[in-house]
Write a structure and sequence with these properties.
The chain has 680 residues and is α+β, with helices and mostly antiparallel strands. It has helices at 10-14, 20-98, 109-123, 161-169, 207-215, 239-243, 252-258, 297-300, 302-348, 363-457, 462-499, 512-530, 553-578, 611-616, 634-645, 670-673, 675-678; strands at 4-7, 127-133, 139-144, 150-151, 171-179, 183-191, 199-205, 223-227, 233-235, 268-270, 276-284, 289-296, 356-359, 508-511, 537-541, 548-551, 586-593, 597-604, 649-655, 659-667. The structure holds adenosine-5'-triphosphate and magnesium ion. Magnesium ion (MG) binds next to helix 13. Residues 562, 565-566, 630, 634 line the site of magnesium ion.
Length: 680
């Protein structure tokens, strides 16, 4: 497994280490890492240990079994060999003794018998004494190595087992006994083949059996011993035990051996000293004895323990190896997972430009690639979303602006409407007293004239006449001023009434050229009616494509009338200033189609507008005309009508002493735009 992991965006990561969330996620990562790490290491170690333990346990168990059975086998073979030797020894003695039971008891055979007995003693060193019993059970001859030979002693054996058992079973083995407290002996009696041959009773020295038993060596502390059919100890390397006539029948292995039916041989048991031993036996057949061979358990299993110890060491070594390998492999496995987790955490924290790079060529890499795809798609949809939000925000801002403009227009219209009402009210109220002032001042001038006429007929000294005339003139002068200013006030009131006419009428689609033409005519004829000798050249350049515009015709006419009359005024003024040097006052009106808008231009070759006037001319009540000739409301109201009511624009281009040109641009749907606010 190859874990090639790198972080494309390490810079971004290190730049954010100060953020608490980041720190928390980092510690989370390390927790996950250590948990996974520990898990993997534990898994490796467990697998290895279980495998090794299972293997070791099997090995130990089987080698224990093999070792034990082979030990038992060896012990059994040794026991068997010893038993065979003892058996052979006894059988030999039996057959040797058998020679002495060939002859029947007659007087003539005594010498022969004695000769045979002596020869037997000489040939078989283990026999120390031989007694020959006649068929009636009385001793006839006794030959011994220790005592004098006895002939015809007549000792009665007829009821003793030596005799009865031998007669019954042909051979009899007596119990073991000791002479001089140190030598084991056994009585062996043998009956002849015929009834009259009697019985030979031999005392057999069993020292040889002791030698056999002592000669058996099993390991260092192993030993052999022999018990008789009653379970008494007959031979043992520790002679004192034998001499003490130890009863071995309580030992489990002896009991089991004596109960020949026992199917299962006891292999592990306690010895006479209470130590655990591994034991095997073999029977000594004609005698009913048993040869036991035993080894202390510790010694028997010593190689086994060594083997277990060795296995333990191997296990420990393997454990250490497994731990190291586990750490190494776990590290290899955990690193890409950790990188994946860190990458996922970065993506999760909103850093969608991050990409996880894992090159392990396995499922982890596939997972990382899937994360990357997901991040890419998320990033795209985020960008898309942001664009949509931007668009929507722009649209909303636009709508808000439109709404605000509409609201402004509405407020303005409202203001205009209420101002109109107010103005109309005031104008009406002022009109009557103003009429009185004007009429009475006119009448008063006439009265002064009449007073002057009357004064002509009256006789008075010159000084008084001069005084009266002076006062009357002053009075006339005052009244003239009252008439003049009264007229001005009247004009203001009239204008106010004109401006404040309630409502603007209906809006409708009208031919814009026709509206301009009508305004030109109205203004021209109005001016000619007002001032005698007024004249001006009118130029028209109407765009035939100007077409219809939806607007409030009355209002637009008011605007045009004002602009045209301003132009007339300026041009006339310039002619008055110029005198008779051929200046020709001219006013030009033009229209132009601009697609969804139309343009109207009113241009005069009058005085032009100086900058200081230009700056203030749209203000209400600003005028440069002499008192009584202008109210200064014309441009102010025109501006409101064009800009606020019709959503159009009004601009001025001028050069003092040369020309003035007003340019109005109206949207074709001007009135519908202003509909909500247009109708007060
Ligand atoms: N075509 C023009 N040429 C020169 N000056 C002009 C022209 N139009 C307007 N003005 C200047 O702007 C001022 C304001 O004009 P506005 O129409 O508002 O008031 P007015 O004409 O003076 O009075 P009203 O229109 O109420 O009779 C004028 O007094 C004049 O000085
Ligand atoms: Mg004017």
């Amino acid at each position: 497994m190859k874990a090639d992991v790198d972080h494309i965006s390490g810079g971004a990561l290190s730049g954010k280490t100060g953020i608490p969330g980041r720190a928390a996620s980092a510690s989370g990562t390390s927790i996950v890492r250590s948990r996974l790490f520990i898990k993997y290491v534990a898994l490796f170690v467990t697998v290895v240990v279980v495998a090794l333990l299972a293997n070791g346990a099997f090995e130990i168990w089987f080698s224990y079994q093999e070792h034990k059975s082979s030990l038992i086998k060896i012990q059994h073979e040794q026991a068997q060999a010893a038993a065979d030797k003892i058996e052979e020894f006894i059988t030999q003695i039996e057959s040797q003794v058998g020679w002495t039971t060939q002859l029947p008891w007659t007087d003539g055979t005594l010498d022969q018998r004695r000769f045979d007995a002596l020869r037997l003693l000489r040939q078989v060193p283990a026999i120390t004494e031989l007694a020959q019993i006649d068929a009636t059970g009385h001793e006839q001859l006794k030959v011994s190595r220790l005592t004098m030979d006895v002939v015809g002693s007549g000792v009665d054996y007829s009821s003793k087992p030596e005799f009865t058992q031998a007669v019954a079973h042909k051979v009899y083995f007596g119990p073991v006994y000791f002479r001089r407290e140190s030598e084991p002996y056994m009585t062996l009696s043998l009956a002849g083949t015929r009834r009259d041959t009697g019985v030979s009773i031999a005392q057999v020295n069993l020292k040889l059996i002791w030698d056999v038993v002592s000669g058996i060596k099993v390991g260092e502390h192993g030993r052999a011993y022999v018990v008789d059919s009653d379970g008494r100890l007959i031979a043992h390397p520790d002679i004192s035990l034998v001499l003490r006539n130890t009863d071995m029948s309580r030992l489990a292995q002896v009991t089991s051996a004596r109960a020949a039916s026992a199917t299962e041989q006891v292999q592990e048991s306690d010895d006479i000293g209470g130590h655990r031993v591994l034991t095997a036996y073999a029977p000594v057949n004609p005698l009913g004895w048993f040869v036991f061979v035993e080894t202390p358990i510790e010694e028997a299993y010593a190689p086994l323990y060594t083997s277990i110890q060795r296995t333990g060491f191997v296990l420990l070594g393997a454990l250490a190896l497994a731990f190291i390998a586990g750490m190494f492999l776990a590290g290899r496995m955990v690193v890409p997972i950790q990188a994946l987790r860190a990458g996922a955490a970065r993506l999760g924290s909103g850093d969608l430009s991050q990409r996880i790079s894992i090159k392990t060529g396995d499922e982890v890499e596939a997972l990382a690639n899937q994360f990357n795809d997901m991040a890419g798609r998320l990033e795209e949809s985020y960008a898309d979303l942001e664009k949509k939000v931007d668009d929507r925000t722009r649209e909303l801002t636009q709508s808000l602006e439109d709404l605000r403009t509409a609201q402004d227009r509405l407020v303005q219209t409202e203001k205009l409407a209420s101002l109109g009402q107010l103005t109309a009210g005031i104008a009406h109220e002022i009109k009557n007293p103003l009429n009185f002032v004007n009429n009475f001042s006119g009448v008063s001038i006439e009265l002064i004239d009449e007073l002057s006429d009357v004064l002509g007929t009256v006789t008075a000294d010159d000084k008084t006449r001069a005084d009266i005339t002076e006062i009357a003139d002053t009075l006339r002068g005052n009244l003239d001023k009252i008439v003049q200013h009264g007229k001005r006030a009247d004009s203001i009131v009239k204008n106010m009434l004109l401006h404040s006419r309630e409502g603007s009428g209906e809006h409708r689609s009208v031919d814009i050229n026709a509206v301009v033409e009508e305004s030109l005519n109205l203004a021209y004829h109005g001016a000619r009616a007002e001032r005698q000798g007024f004249n001006i050249t009118l130029e028209r350049s109407f765009d035939p494509a100007a077409g219809e515009v939806d607007l409030f015709p009355q209002e637009i006419t008011r605007v045009l009338l004002n602009l045209i009359s301003n132009g007339f005024y300026a041009a006339t003024k310039r002619k008055a200033q110029a005198g008779n040097d051929g200046f020709e006052p001219t006013l030009a009106a033009a229209t132009k189609n601009l697609g969804d808008r139309v343009e109207i231009r009113i241009r005069d070759n009058g005085t032009g507008i100086p900058p200081e006037v230009k700056a203030k001319m749209f203000n209400p009540f600003f005028t440069t005309k002499p008192a009584g000739e202008g109210t200064g409301l014309g441009l102010s109201i025109s501006h409101d009508i064009i800009v606020k009511q019709h959503a159009g624009s009004i601009a001025v281009d001028t050069e003092p002493g040369s020309f003035t040109e007003f340019k109005i641009v109206l949207p074709r749907t001007a009135a519908s735009i202003a509909k909500s606010g247009g109708q007060a």
